[in-house]
Here is the input.
Amino acid sequence: VESSVILPNVDIGERCKIKNAVIDKGCLIPEGMEIGMDLDRDRERGFYVTENGIVLVTPDMLGQDVHRAY
Here is the structure.
């Protein structure tokens, strides 16, 4: 994880690479996922990418229940 903001209750799987990202609370980042390494790929997955190359990831964007218990 590099130059990123990880909000509370986030679970990041093994071997993930995250760069220049904001990961919303409650996200479950699957093992091996790369975020912020290929911005076009991030856009294809439905993540929001700012003009400055910051990637926003929310549970909804990952197809996860945003109302899960913490």
